[in-house]
Design brief:
Blueprint lengths: L2 H13 L3 H17 L3 H17 L3 H17 L6 H16 L3 H17 L6 H16 L3 H15 L6 H17 L3 H17 L8 H14 L3 H19 L4 H17 L4 H11 L3 H20 L8 E4 L4 H4 L16 E4 L1 H16 L4 E2 L2 E2 L11 E4 H9 L8 H6 L2 H7 L3 E5 L3 H10 L4 H28 L3 H22 L10 H4 L9 H10 L7 H21 L14 H6 L4 H4 L9
Parallel strand pairs: 2-5
Antiparallel strand pairs: 1-2, 1-6, 3-4
Helix pairs in contact: 2-3, 3-4, 3-5, 4-5, 5-6, 5-7, 6-7, 7-8, 7-9, 8-9, 9-10, 9-11, 10-11, 11-12, 12-13, 12-15, 18-20, 22-23, 22-26, 23-25, 23-26, 25-26
């Protein structure tokens, strides 16, 4: 058997999803090596065929063929070799798939002992073994042990070069373990990393991506986001059937999950439909990603394969859906299926218009949503140059390099270009700039902006509000209170190292901040209490309490040293810590926003 030619052909069949042809090819080659009495080749072929049997749910056949491999290993005197360990690992996976945990664990331990003796403790095979042991402990309902071995696997794989698929698969496994422990935030983070890696791979979706989508569907189902769960399961099923056929065991599991989610999207009683309407709604981000996966991927792959490697694709920018704040009311205008394609400027000049034309031909209706765009909402989706997109909002074609550029980049615009989600980025330039912006302001700029914010908080809230009320100037007091609230919100975002979105979403975005959470309801109280003589003292006291909380957080972050509750007294302390003389010499209240 000419192994190089054989495996090239086999790999091509697997990549094309021709699983039945691959099985026939392996069987025919096995018959040939049997006749030649080539036991070494027989071991490799039996392992390949066993893998086919396993993914198509024929577990008993898989066990038998792996026993053939083990017998050949015994005859050739290859016990305790890497080949022996790999075969044991594969056979153990079949027992694991059949929920025969004790048998699987025993075989995995035998394989682990062989790999350790051979100095393979940091080899991918050991990582795969740990991943599989994690699955066995999951079967045994030992969640902590299952998580431990998934983490061991990740520690090995993330340091291995050219193992992107294995790394993504390991993140997916880790997410499943987190879900078992009800740690949904950690699961979502792991799945997002797996998805990022899979989406960056060239060509058609990798078959292992289906497991990530299945887990994402499970997560969305738990979160009662049923429409997004359906989308995930549908995409997973499409990948599985393309690769393994309609009758594969994996496809059957996914189909069951899909039907379960669909039932909750189609309640039988009209009253149930009303009650579930909010829960089953697909978010704008989910709609965008599903639309891209269903139509955008094919459009790009079929019509612009030569430009695909330069593209970043996602949904970032203006619109409530980019911040994750959309609801049913958001659907009245500038909402619906769509996504962004960002290209380097030189590629955009050559092909941008052509790609935009193809984008415009994509279906306008998707999942009962039609994007009705107003003049004010145009230009949010479609094809853009990377440099042009960032310059439109920040004034810079890249992340600012100089503190002065940072100072004059509008705060809310920085929130706009760092929100949303990048589905994939082949070229990497868009994400590189985005990462630079997400790293947040340089310290000098942070100090300068905080000095300006607490100066305005002190002036408008601690000083002018009560004076305006004593003069009977309720309108001026109202504006003073509004300035205080606005500057306080900005200070809270700054102290959380997050960019503040524009005024409509300032309050809503505070729910996502970790520090000074208690300030939001206090500011809501300030905004709702009328400016009357009877409420002046209470509002002034509330303003003072807010200022004290901000002072304490500044001290906690080692930005000031004093304890005066009057915030203006700390402005010079903040300014004195600035190193750049151009920024240090600016007036306290100056801010390039």
């Amino acid at each position: 058997m000419k192994s190089e030619k054989f495996y090239q052909q086999l790999d091509m069949l697997f990549r094309s999803g021709k699983i039945q042809e691959a099985e026939r090819y392996i069987r025919e080659t096995m018959e040939q090596v049997r006749q030649d009495n080539d036991l070494s080749a027989l071991i490799s072929l039996a392992n390949e065929l066993g893998g086919v049997f396993r993914v198509t749910g024929r577990l008993e056949e898989a066990k038998k063929i792996y026993q053939v491999a083990l017998e050949a290993i015994r005859v050739l005197g290859l016990e305790d070799t890497e080949q022996h360990g790999t075969t044991l690992l594969n056979l153990a996976s079949v027992h694991s798939e059949g929920k025969e945990a004790a048998e699987a664990l025993a075989l995995y331990n035998m394989a682990a002992e062989i790999f350790s003796k051979k100095g393979l403790s940091q080899d991918y095979r050991m990582a795969a073994l740990y991943n599989n042991i994690s699955h066995v402990y999951d079967l045994l309902e030992k969640a902590d042990q299952a998580l431990l071995y998934a983490e061991k696997s990740l520690c090995i794989v993330k340091d291995l070069p050219a193992h992107e698929v294995e790394l993504a698969t390991t993140y997916s496994t880790l997410a499943v373990r987190y879900l078992k422990l009800q740690e949904e935030a950690k699961a979502e983070s792991a799945l997002a990393e797996a998805e990022r890696i899979f989406n960056a791979l060239p060509g058609k979706p990798n078959v292992h991506y289906a497991a990530t989508l299945n887990s994402f569907g499970d997560l969305r189902y738990r979160q009662q986001r049923y429409a997004e769960a359906v989308s995930c399961f549908e995409r997973a099923l499409r990948i599985l059937t393309e690769n393994y056929g309609e009758s594969s065991a994996y496809a059957d599991v996914t189909r069951t999950n899909l039907e379960k989610a669909r039932r909750l999207l189609a309640p039988t009683k009209s009253s149930d439909r009303v009650n579930l309407n909010k829960d089953m709604r697909m978010t704008g981000m989910g709609l965008s990603e599903a639309y891209f996966n269903e139509f955008g991927r094919t459009m790009i792959r079929d019509q612009f394969p030569e430009y695909e490697k330069y593209m970043a694709i996602g949904l970032v920018g203006e619109g409530s859906e980019c911040f994750g704040f959309d609801d049913e009311l958001s659907e009245s205008h500038d909402f619906g299926p769509g996504f962004c394609i960002w290209l380097p400027n030189d590629i955009y000049r050559v092909a941008g218009a052509q790609i935009q034309e193809a984008y415009d031909r994509l279906p306008k209706n998707y999942r009962n949503q039609y994007r009705a765009i107003t003049p004010e909402g145009s230009g949010r989706i479609g094809v853009f140059s990377i440099e042009g997109f960032y310059k439109k909002y920040t004034g810079c074609t890249d992340a600012p390099k100089d503190p002065v550029e940072w100072l004059f980049a509008p705060e809310t615009s920085l929130a706009t270009v760092t929100n949303g989600k990048v589905f994939l980025d082949h070229w990497g330039a868009f994400s590189r700039i985005r990462s630079g912006l997400l790293a947040f302001y340089p310290r000098d700029i942070l100090l300068k902006k905080l000095a300006a914010r607490i100066a305005m908080m002190s002036q408008s809230g601690q000083y002018n509000y009560e004076r305006c009320m004593k003069r009977g100037e309720a309108a001026a007091a109202y504006l003073s209170c509004a300035e205080f609230i606005k500057n306080t919100i900005s200070a809270v975002y700054l102290l959380n190292r997050r960019y503040m979105p524009f005024y409509k979403w300032m309050f809503r975005g505070m729910d996502q901040l970790e520090r000074l959470k208690e300030i939001k309801p206090m500011l809501e109280r300030l905004a709702s209490v009328p400016d009357t003589p009877s409420s002046t003292a209470a509002k002034a006291e509330l303003i003072e309490r807010v200022c004290i909380l901000v002072r304490d957080e500044l001290k906690n972050q080692n930005m000031i040293s004093g304890s005066d509750p009057f915030l203006n007294s700390h402005c010079q302390d903040l300014m004195s810590r600035i190193e750049d003389p151009r920024i240090k010499g600016l007036p306290v209240m100056f801010d390039g926003k």
